[in-house]
Amino acid sequence: MGRVVIGVDLGGTNLRTAILSPEGELLERHKEATHAADGWARVVERLTENIKRLRDAAMGRGLEVAAVGVGAPGVIRGDKGIVVKSPNFPDWNNVPLKDQLEEALGVPVVIENDANAAALGEQWRGAGKGISSMILLTLGTGVGGGIILDNKIWHGADGMAGEIGHMTLVPDGRPCTCGNVGCLEMYASARGIVQSYHEALGNRASGSPITSEQIYDAARSGDKTAVHVMEEMGRMLGIGIASLINIFNPERIVIGGGVKEGWPLFIEATRKEIMKRAFEVPAKRTDIVPSQLGDDAGMVGAAAKALEQARTA
Amino acid sequence: MGRVVIGVDLGGTNLRTAILSPEGELLERHKEATHAADGWARVVERLTENIKRLRDAAMGRGLEVAAVGVGAPGVIRGDKGIVVKSPNFPDWNNVPLKDQLEEALGVPVVIENDANAAALGEQWRGAGKGISSMILLTLGTGVGGGIILDNKIWHGADGMAGEIGHMTLVPDGRPCTCGNVGCLEMYASARGIVQSYHEALGNRASGSPITSEQIYDAARSGDKTAVHVMEEMGRMLGIGIASLINIFNPERIVIGGGVKEGWPLFIEATRKEIMKRAFEVPAKRTDIVPSQLGDDAGMVGAAAKALEQARTA
Predict the structure, then answer these.
(1) B6: buried, middle or exposed (CB in 10 Å: 19+, 13-18, 0-12)?
(2) Cβ of A87 under 8 Å from any chain B Cβ?
(3) Number of Cβ atoms within 10 Å of the Cβ of B37
(4) What predicted TM-score, i.e. pTM, was given to this entire model?
(5) What is the value of ipTM here, to two decimals?
């Protein structure tokens, strides 16, 4: 019987599941609302049902599920199979997700932080193919990061590495939700862009809420404030990436998340800032590229982890 | 016959060599001036002579030299055995140091960047014993770095990783020798401390040169300006380390270099800033400790590389 894996992206909003071939072909997929507010017991139940349904579908195709990989937000101890805590699931405290799922499913399960899973997904099937050292930056509401070194995620001593969004960019800068001030996240995220726009408008602001998408549109239409805000965001991102290049000397930096939509509006400023600040050899060698898998990255990367698990088990 | 290794620290000023046992015991050592101005051919010749002399000494003790490790400043491609370029040896351009030494000596040779070698030395025999992930920061004239992850140096795609001194701390800060502005090196090095002191004195400055050591002494004697300069240096170092903790979640950060002399004058400010800025779990878990091996770290670490080479060869 042919062997496949199941990849899961357990997001705060959506629960995505898919069957993938060992070559990374997406054979079947499903998406539904997570309903995180139902509490962890019900979410794990729903997750289990979804995986079982896909496993039945695989069997119908004459395929055996060798392992399941789950990407989830928050602090994950993949080595212990535990979700330590998760911002989207307030009642998840040291949940032994791996054991619970393995008991319910009878197949090996691996769990991984969602940003790390997305990095693995991009490396396997997206913008990082053939690359052994890359950093994924997801510019969304916040800024997430996944660091791949020598083909492996660098997790750190507590599974908390990769918080690139919370490197300090401006020592006395904007207060961040993490408690620090001046984090990269406060300048290079959707939230940061909106804040910059409001600050730029100053007392000319109408007071009406504006979204990052509206700012991209305004910039595309030639609105000078919006153009400047996006260039400044690109410059700040470049300062952060230049530091990452000097620290890691990686092969590639992949940029994903919703802010990627504004790519042509910020990337020139980012590249210029990197060349101004980073050492020449690593700056020239580091490709800065957009992610390719979009919302599938986490699910695909979770499947990659599952595949690795199935191979080494 | 017992087997030993030879560790070499090929500095711009001093050339240090030693015989070390597989347990890291320093059996015999030698130090002389490098005379870098003599040019690479003569320096390599002198280096070879020094190693041969130590090898003879080892044989006299009934010990065989299994491998030689060399730490050298600059861009080193350890995988290729080449010194790409070195700030202290202007005429060293892609010198195949490993091959030259192996030919002259008839034993396996490994080469490594000096800051990386120092990190390995501290991990093996100093402040990083038993630690698998640590970052060494050497606060000297400049700021160097060595990153150990999973017991191995992270070299990066071009062997240029670990330039932690050149992460941007202040986007529009002091011009750095590297071409960037606001690098950590401009605030947390001996040079940075002297600059801060002169800036703090402003037009009250006598114009007479002052050294970082004199500033530590002044601070110890209660000179308010000097005390403030050292605390501010500690705070800036803390900002940089907080970012490293959020990025790497390492077990330990080891601080070496001449500025370590001023340890009690800056470390409280550093620790306070880290707790303010980094995530709580990794901030609490990361030990910030002084290096233990002093000027021997690079030589000892080079010997560690040699030992690894001898074991895997």
Answers:
(1) buried
(2) no
(3) 12
(4) 0.95
(5) 0.95
